[in-house]
Every structure is written in structure tokens, then in C-alpha cells.
Specification:
alpha/beta, about 170 residues, about 40% helix, 6 helices
Amino acid sequence: MTSYELDNDGRFKYFFLCLAASINGWRHCKPVISVDGTFLKNEFSGTLLLSAVLDADNHYFPLGFAIVDSENDSSWEWFFERLKEAIGTREELVIVSDRKRSIPKAVDKVFPDASHGFCMQHLLKNLNSNFKCVHVDAIFYRCVKAYRKEDFGYFMHQLETVRQAIQIVSCK
């Protein structure tokens, strides 16, 4: 499936592509879609939006791609609308992303029954960049991998304790 949109002056604005193999294979994949965007560094600039899932063998499986002007509310909403046209929706759908504010807004509009979560790698990167003097990776991974609410609460409390300690001790 391909789709594109032009601006008011007839110039290229958005382009979407989802291969037939991706459309057919989606039903055999886990219902957790990861999305992200990256800058295109060429004479035309723009942003590449992409979506992928894990297949039954835990390998990355591409879904849809788009080239848009930038990561903003309208481009993410347009992308998710095209993706939904291509692959539909499924029960217990989860969409995982970085912390761009436009993504949860678009997910709520286009996939209102889906859950949205933030990528643990992006969260850990932000945590490490804000608290450079303390290694919080081990505690963070325990939170991420907790299967019970009680375990998550326990490890989250440990992480909060570390954060309080960071505020008191200055990094050198």
C-alpha cells in the first residue's frame, strides 16, 4: 500500500509505504508496534517515520514507513491513519515510542483502544543523561522486567531512593 499527500502548492508533503508482505505477516506477529522517527540528511531533508514489530521468532519485522516534513502532531496522525488502513487493528494492541509528545496524541486519535508506552531504552538513556554520576541501569532493568506489581513497586522505590540520594550528593 502506498499513499502520498501534497501541500496547497502541489508540492510533496507526505509519503507512506507498507509492503504486501508486511500486511500479510502482521497477523503472525506480536501486537506490539514500535515506532520512531529520524532526520533525513540530504538536499530535501524531512523525517523518516517507521514502525516495526517482533515476529513469532523475536526478529524485527518491518510494518510501515513514511517520509514527512517533520515529527509533529499532523504528520504522526497522518502516519498512524495510513498504518491503520494498511494493517488494521488487533486486540491488546500496544504502541511503543520515544517521548515525543505528538505520538501519544496521534495514538489516542487513531488507535483509541490501543495502549501506549515509552521505550525502555529511551527512558534509560534519559535517566543516565540526567544522573551521570550514578549507575542506575541495574535497578532500572529490575523495574522493567518485574512481572508482579509488588516487585515493580519494590524496585521503583529503590530507584526513587537513588534519585533522592543524587539530589543530595553532588557529582564531581
